[in-house]
Amino acid sequence: MANNRHQVYATGKVVYYINHKRFYNDKNQRNGRAKCQQYCLDNFLDFNDVIQFDSDTECDYYEYLLERQKRGEISNLTHHFLIKVQSEFVNANGDVIPEITYNADFIYKEGDKRVVVDVKSSEYFLNNDGGRFILLKSVFDKVFLEKGLYIKIIIKKSKGEFYEWHIGDKQKSGKLIKKQSSQIKELRKQIHATEMANRKEEREKARLIELRGIENLTSNQRKRLKELEDKYRL
Question: What tens digit of pLDDT does each residue of 106-117 get?
Answer without folding.
Answer: 999 999 999 999
